[in-house]
Write a structure and sequence with these properties.
With about 375 residues, the protein is an alpha+beta fold. It has helices spanning about 65-70, 105-110, 115-120, 135-140, 145-185, 230-235, 295-305, 310-315, 330-335, 340-375; strands at about 5-10, 15, 30, 35-40, 55, 60, 75, 85, 90-95, 140, 200, 205-210, 220, 225-230, 245, 255, 260, 265, 270-275, 280-285, 285-290, 325, 335-340. A 5-stranded mixed sheet has the order 13-15-14-20-16. Strands 2-9-6-7 form a 4-stranded antiparallel sheet, with helices on one face. It has a 4-stranded antiparallel sheet with strand order 12-21-17-19. The longest helix is centred in the middle third of the chain and has 40 residues, at about 145-185. The chain is globular, with a radius of gyration of 23 Å. It comes from Fibrobacter succinogenes. This is Type I restriction modification DNA specificity domain-containing protein.
Length: about 375
């Protein structure tokens, strides 16, 4: 499509270096592996933020320090009206003429896995695989006619809008399920005066919590079963997913509809319970496969979701280098009011809600695959 129209990126963008001298901008952001801005987890107590760089709407920021090590360029497009600040080490740039190159089209190009793989060839000889600004600017991009760019962006945004609509619906359905759970097990229950047939039960007794497995270098393969880490739990199977061929104990294999509990990672963004909807796979360590002892998947999922704030608090208390964790000991110490037949009843009541959540998750998986296909065709 564009093979004869590859251009030097630096001919279409220019660096921006505006510092936060008057300290008016207070939103400090980093960039995650999904190439989106996120609140920074850096400890800036006592740090002079006047030297941090300001990023305005329509501008880009990227971190080039560990490209070779991470095999990815963390780069993001600022879409909010409110300015943000980023580390002085970040490179900030903008498109010179948006009548020639659309910012959204450029961000789509940055989102391609092929772009990240190609970036490795531009890294320096440092052990961390750093990349300087000039190397980034020397990379090649296709620049079709502006009308064609608009078509591509519109098609991509249509898919993105449908995905976002589904995410909002999923959030509403999850809230509905949580309201049902709290009304049944929290709001009308006195832990010190439980009804007949009720007891205070440790979370650990409600299900079997099976930690995922580790993988030797020889067990990774170009194809096979997807290895599920937190990135796969959040984003599904992508071009960055690793694969396994070999034999492991049956308990590590997962299928659609199973509950996964990520017990290690960033407390605010990773510690959570999820339904898996991306097909047969094998589970990496740092995530539990949760198998309800009474077969009440809906109840167990609602239970874990209800305890998320407490999980986040516990993980934050053990946080080191940005990561925290929830232990088996925590699951044994945390207790909840429990009644077997009520758990069974609430599972039946929530079944339709959970089914709709799973359907919307699977629909988003298909839409995301369509986005990936569109991105892959940009360089053809």
């Amino acid at each position: 499509m564009f093979e004869n129209n590859m251009k030097r990126l630096g001919d279409y963008i220019r660096p921006v270096d505006v510092r936060n001298r008057d300290l008016k901008v207070t939103r400090l952001m980093g960039i995650n592996i999904e190439k989106r801005f996120m609140p920074s987890v850096a400890n800036v107590v006592g740090t002079d933020l006047s030297n941090y760089k300001i990023v305005l709407k329509g501008q880009f920021a990227c971190n080039l320090m560990h490209v070779g090590r991470d095999e990815k360029i963390p780069v993001a497009l600022q879409k909010d009206d409110e300015p943000i600040i980023v580390s002085p080490a970040y490179v900030v740039f903008e498109v010179v003429d948006t009548n020639v190159l659309l910012t959204e089209y450029l961000m789509m190009w940055f989102s391609r896995s092929e772009f990240d793989r190609n970036a490795w060839f531009y890294t320096d000889g440092d052990v961390r695989g750093g990349m300087d600004r000039e190397a980034l600017f020397d990379m090649q991009i296709p620049v079709p006619a502006i009308e064609k760019q608009r078509e591509i962006v519109a098609e991509y945004n249509t898919l993105a809008t449908r995905i976002e609509t589904n995410k909002k619906l999923i959030a509403t359905l999850e809230q509905t399920a949580q309201t049902l759970y709290r009304h049944t097990f929290i709001d009308n229950i006195d832990p010190n005066n439980l009804p007949n047939g009720w007891r205070m039960a440790p979370l650990y007794e409600s299900a079997e919590f099976i930690n995922g497995t580790s993988f030797a270098p020889s067990e990774y393969a170009p194809a096979g079963l997807p290895i599920v880490k937190i990135a796969e739990i959040k984003n599904g199977i992508t071009a960055e997913t690793e694969y396994f061929i070999g034999e492991k104990e049956d308990k590590y294999y997962i299928r659609n509809g199973e509950i996964l509990f990520s017990w290690s990672g960033n407390p605010e963004t990773s510690i959570d319970a999820f339904f898996w909807t991306h097909g047969n796979a094998i589970l990496n360590q740092h995530t539990f496969r949760v198998v309800p002892k009474d077969g009440e998947y809906e109840y167990i999922w609602m239970l874990l979701k209800n305890f998320k704030p407490e999980f986040v608090r516990l993980a934050s208390g053990k946080q080191t280098t940005g990561l925290g964790h929830v232990t088996v000991a925590d699951l044994k110490n945390l207790k909840t009011p429990y009644c077997e037949y009520v758990a069974r009843e609430i599972s039946l009541q929530a079944h339709g809600i959970i089914k709709e959540i799973l359907l919307k998750q699977q629909e988003n998986q298909t839409l995301t695959q369509m986005q990936t296909l569109l991105l892959s065709k940009m360089g053809v």
